[in-house]
Amino acid sequence: MKKITDYENKKVLVLGLAKSGVSAAKLLHELGALVTVNDFKQFDQNPEAQDLLTLGIRVVTGGHPIELLDEDFSLIVKNPGIPYSNPLVAKALSMKLPILTEVELAYQIAECPIIGITGTNGKTTTTTMIGLLLNADRESGTARLAGNIGYPASEVAESARADDDIVMELSSFQLMGIQTFRPQIAVITNVYEAHLDYHGSREEYVKAKWAIQQNMQETDFLILNWNQAELQELSKTTKAAIIPFSTKEKVAGAYLADEKIYYKDEFIMLAGELGVPGSHNIENALAAISVAKLKGIPTDVIRQTLMVFTGVPHRTQYVGEIAGRKFYNDSKATNILATEMALSGFDHSALILLAGGLDRGNSFDELIPSLVGIKAIILFGETKDKLHKAAIEAGVKTIKLTKNVETAVRDAYDFSEKDDTILLSPACASWDQYPNFELRGNAFIQAMHQLKDIEK
Q: Do 31 and 148 fall into the same domain?
C-alpha cells in the first residue's frame, strides 16, 4: 500500500464497527492516527471493540455520546449504515467536520487501479462477473473483490499490489463519504427508487450514486445503462469517457441484437449461452463485458467465463436439480422490481414461484403483470395474503399458502413435474421470519437437499 502521512498524529473518530469499521480503525492506527472508536454495542458484547483495545486503540461503547465531539477530532470515518440523521453525525455536519467512509481510505492507500460498481440492482452479480473475467487467464496480479460485496475495501487495498485490480462494489451509503475517490473504470448498473428512508428523496439517492464519477477525468471510463434515459441525461455532466450498454438498441459499447451480444460491433456470444437466466443478467453481463474489453480480456476468454458462471449466492443462483426439477435461489430479491427481473428469465408455464416475507405496507399491484402465466405460486410470511390477492388478479390457477420457506419447498415439489423450475424470489425482506436474506436462501437450499435425500 502507499505509505501516506496524511493521518499522522491526527485525532480521528471511527464511528460504528462491523467489518469496515474494524478495518478502518486498524489502518488509521497503522498510519499513525490517534484513533477513537465509538460503537453502539456494549463492550462486554463487542468482541471487535475488545480486539481493538488490545491494539492500544481507544474504545467508547454503549451509545454515541455527542460529547465526543468536544475532543477536537480532525475527521470522522463513519460506518455506512449509520444515517446522517444520527444526532452525533448531524452535530458533526453542523461543525463542518469531514465525514468519510472507509472506501475513501482504501482509495488513498491503493497502489493499483480501482474499478467501482454501483447501481440499485445487479451490483454484486456484475462485480462478481468482472472479478472472474479479469482473473481468467491472468498472467500476473489478481482482481480482488472489495467493498459492499463483503470484503472491507481498506483491508483489500492494504494488501493489494501494483499489478492487481480492486473490483469494488459501492453502495449509495458508501459513496456519500468520499472526497478524492477516483476509479479508473466505473459502472452504474441502473438507478431505481430505493433507500428513501436513508436518503430522504429519490433526488438525493441518485445524487449519491452519481458521486462515483465526481473525480473522474477524460482518461477514465464510465459504463452506463443506456436503457435508462435518466443515466443518458446525467452522462452529459461527467468528464469521464462514456461506454454505454443496452439491451434495446445498438450503442457505441456493449449491446444486445437478435439475441446476440456485441461489443463495439464485435460478436461476443449468444445471450442464451450465459450461465445465468434473465434479462437483468444480460444487462449485468453487458456491463461486465465492457470492463473486460477495456482491460484487454480476449473475446474467447469472456465467452467461456460467462458460459460457466452460474450466479452469486442468493441472486438467481442455480442450486440443483431433483427428478428433472431445477431449483433457483433468488433470496436477495427483497423488493418487487428484483422479483420482476428474476421472473423475466424463466418460462412461466413451467415455473413455480416461492414468495413472501416482511410486510412494509406496500401492495403488490406492480407485480401482477409479471405473475401472469406462471404455473403455481407458494406464499409465506407476513405478506402472503397480499400476494395471494395479487396472484388471483394475475389469474394464477394454483396458489398455496404455507408456513415458511422450508414448507414452501416441499409444497412446490408436490405441485411440480419434470422440466419445471422452482424459484425462490420473495419480493420482500426476510426479517419477519429470518434474520437476513442469506439465511432465508440457505433455508431454501437446505430444504432442497433434504428433499433430494427423500427422493433418492
A: no
Q: Are residues 292 and 341 in the same domain?
A: no
Those residues whose C-beta lies under 8 Å from the C-beta of residue 233, and which sit 6 or more positions away, are none
Measured distance CA(184)–CA(22) in Å, rounded: 27
Residues near 204 by beta carbon (within 8 Å), at least 6 away in sequence:
none
Element (H, E) at 327: strand 325-329
Angle at 35 between CA 34 and CA 36, to 5 degrees: 130
How many whole angstroms separate alpha carbon 33 and alpha carbon 290? 39
Residues contributing to the annotated binding site: 119-125
pLDDT tens, 91-104?
999 999 999 999 99
Query: Do 284 and 146 fall into the same domain?
Result: yes
* 150 lies in the same domain as 253: yes
pLDDT digit string, tens, across residues 28-59: 999 999 999 999 999 999 999 999 999 999 99
CA 144/CA 167 separation, integer angstroms: 6
Q: Are strands 421-424 and 398-401 parallel, antiparallel or unpaired?
A: unpaired
> Which residues contact residue 393 at a Cβ distance below 8 angstroms, ignoring those fewer than 6 apart?
365, 368
> What DSSP state is assigned to residue 385?
H
pLDDT at 310: 85
> Would you say residue 120 lies in a domain?
yes
Annotated binding site for ATP: 119-125
Domain boundary among 55, 71, 100: 100
DSSP conformation letters of 41-86? S-GGG-HHHHHHHHTT-EEEESS--GGGGGG--SEEEE-TTS-TTS
Residues forming a β-bridge with 246? 255
Whether residue 54 lies inside any domain: the answer is yes
Identify the CA nearest to 148 among candidates 165, 183, 172, 181: 172
Q: Are 199 and 221 found together in one domain?
A: yes
Looking at the fold, whether 269 and 151 belong to one and the same domain comes out as yes
Position 60: which residue type? V
* 3-class secondary structure, 144: strand
pTM for this predicted structure? 0.84
**Stated length of the chain:** 456
Domain span holding position 385: 317-455
DSSP annotation string for 256-318: EETTEEEETTEEEEEGGGSSS-SHHHHHHHHHHHHHHHHTT--HHHHHHHHHH---BTTBSEE
Q: Is residue 6 part of a domain?
A: no
Contact 441, 354 (CB under 8 A): no
